[in-house]
Amino acid sequence: MSEVRELAGRAQKAAVALANTSTDQRNRALLAMAHALVSRQDEILEANARDMEAARVKNTGASLLDRLELNPMRIKAISEALKSLSVLPDPIGEVVSGGRLGNGIWLQQVRVPIGVVAIIYEARPNVTADAAGLCIKTGNAVVLRGGSLAVESNLAITKVLAAAAVGAGLPEGCIASVSSTDREAAEELMRLHGVIDVLIPRGGAGLIRSVVENATVPVIETGTGNCHIYVHESADPRMAERIVVNAKCQRPGVCNAAETLLIDESIHEVVLPPILRALEQAGVTVHADDKTRALGAIMRVVPATEEDWATEYLDLQIACKVVAGLDEAIAHINTYGTKHSEAIVTEEYSAAVRFLNEVDAAAVYVNASTRFTDGGEFGLGAEIGISTQKLHARGPMGLAALTTTKYVAMGSGQIRE
Amino acid sequence: MSEVRELAGRAQKAAVALANTSTDQRNRALLAMAHALVSRQDEILEANARDMEAARVKNTGASLLDRLELNPMRIKAISEALKSLSVLPDPIGEVVSGGRLGNGIWLQQVRVPIGVVAIIYEARPNVTADAAGLCIKTGNAVVLRGGSLAVESNLAITKVLAAAAVGAGLPEGCIASVSSTDREAAEELMRLHGVIDVLIPRGGAGLIRSVVENATVPVIETGTGNCHIYVHESADPRMAERIVVNAKCQRPGVCNAAETLLIDESIHEVVLPPILRALEQAGVTVHADDKTRALGAIMRVVPATEEDWATEYLDLQIACKVVAGLDEAIAHINTYGTKHSEAIVTEEYSAAVRFLNEVDAAAVYVNASTRFTDGGEFGLGAEIGISTQKLHARGPMGLAALTTTKYVAMGSGQIRE
């Protein structure tokens, strides 16, 4: 039997037992996991040192090395995140709806764990602990499959977490990491229909595409964000500048950062130059259409191509287009956007309402930065990712996104006539 | 451009406009659709007559012919179903959660249509009108792909409904049926990622398997039901008999009918024979394990094989197995069941609680027939199908299952620090 199938099979068995653990048991396990990360940090740091060494041999870039590196301070932060999960309210067991049917059956729709959650990710080793913690909190077994660069760190973290969870009374096999980092192992995981209840890919567009193409298990797509800021003719110019610069520059590498600036033609000659200059000052390269370039406001500008409208730069780059008005802006966003986060800057009531209603995205904003699309900012307490699909969960996914429901019916001999 | 892509593209455009129609507009369209079905029934009945003729040439069986046949009474019933949809509460626009964030942003999570719903089905032509009605009620555009036997009827019904909807002010292209009934057309529909927002297959296990294997669009699996009735040693024998006979015989061809009877060894010699005799009297063939056969209670019995435990007969057949007790019953159900509807008959409190907690299914019952798993019985008002997956919707799916949500954020210049 392959490693993937074996781990998933054990996770499936564990899920049955996990579903019947109490809130207190799972919270105690989270605290034990948090404690173990720190008390056994030496083995994690040793494994991480091996990953770092291998990455250096491969001439990995500095920013990737920084993401990969663990140290006692970072381990402490990961441990604290697990502790804070333990004090969040437990969604499991919540009665979502209920009542007595006409025939006397007492029917309740109850929130229960999904079962086995698989997560394929490319990011930093802290995702390993975060994802395991979120799944244990919600009573799910988890099969993790991280990127090859962090494989030793991920396996060490998983080993420590799994031992702590089992030590705290949770079933064997409830947390597992796939050690094989080849493509076949990932594809096998995507195709374990009937074993994996949901697969959440966390990574770049290539990973998401591969999952959509290959998966037979239910998937929640996350993360791609080609977000727009549209400056309407009635916008407060200072507010527009602040929001554009924040949405682009505050953290350019994340999915809720802005990638395209749209601005109304009637005001672009006056309002756009200061915005472009502020972006230039922040180090942003502007991929500009003809009308923007004709302003000659800045140096750091390149001609925009059709491709730019669909590009998620995740970098200090932005596309800029002058539009005729609200209709063109909405049509452009609904054509090129990835339905993640979209904002209008306007002082006109009816433009705001139309934008909120007609733009199809997980989060739509009036007069605020797209950067707020985040589980923490939205008050969800924790976040497993940002769903860009419409099924099951949309936008930032908190603990409830890792649950499903079950109808519980208590009768007294009812039969259907 | 292929027919499928063209219809789906038109549906996608229609969905944008549909999402911004009012409840009143959509309800008026439903009434217009209901009216048109009756006023234009001649063309529908003519198309149906062509389907019936072609089916007879193919030597189609009597029960399938009966499902296919339309007549004025049946059209009237379909029309009435659309009318009753028009008076149900509209889920669109509901504020699911909301409030003012710490930074002053007013955030609301609002229920919105999913967008473009595709439905692949094998069943009677009434599904065409039902599915179209449910989608229009919830502001979704719909692309239908029915079975080849009913293709003329489906196209005629779609033509009438679409004309009525557009006549009532809904956008062109909001209701469409694919005329091509070959496999390629269905597979193309399954792979229109980014155009189709959800695909709901309604049909047998073969269809569901093909969709799971081929789809790149999000899918809601429906319908497969290998349901069990477990008679616990503390069961009231009369109640057990009534529930078993009802769950198996009241309508054997549906997904919530019972397919396996489990009974505790300690009582099987006394309690099982009357149940078997009642089943035999109702015309049921029993696929029985050795201990059941040893009772010699009935004539219509065949030896059960491993395959029987996993079979959804959808017929007057049932598998029967004597189990050691609650543990074996739960393990058997969690191994062979399809997580649809499962029932225990018991008078023992702790057995009931364990069954409800430990059996993993969309609906779990104590002392009631599995036949109640149904949108109408559960008070959902309408039903698009019964989900047997855990993502998005589980169990009977009402109008809310055809919606998603959108975060609407109203700010006053907030940026993220």
What does this structure look like?
The structure is a homodimer. Chain A is of the alpha/beta class and about 425 residues long. In chain A, the strands form four sheets. Chain A has a seven-stranded parallel beta sheet. Chain A has helices spanning about 5-20, 25-40, 40-55, 60-70, 70-85, 125-135, 150-165, 185-190, 205-215, 235-250, 265-280, 290-295, 325-335, 350-360, and strands spanning about 95-100, 105-115, 115-120, 140-145, 175, 200, 225-230, 260-265, 285-290, 300-305, 315-325, 340-345, 365-370, 385, 395, 405-415. Helix content of chain A is about 40%, strand content about 20%. Chain A folds into two domains: about 5-220 and about 390-410, Aldehyde Dehydrogenase, Chain A, domain 1 (3-Layer(aba) Sandwich), CATH 3.40.605.10; about 225-370, Aldehyde Dehydrogenase, Chain A, domain 2 (3-Layer(aba) Sandwich). The termini of chain A are far apart. Chains A and B meet through helix 10, helix 14, strand 13 and strand 16 of A and helix 10, helix 15, strand 13 and strand 16 of B.
Tell me the greatest interface: A-B, 68 and 68 residues
Please give the order of strands in the largest beta sheet of chain A.
10-9-11-8-7-12-13
Shape of chain A: globular
Number of helices of chain A: 14
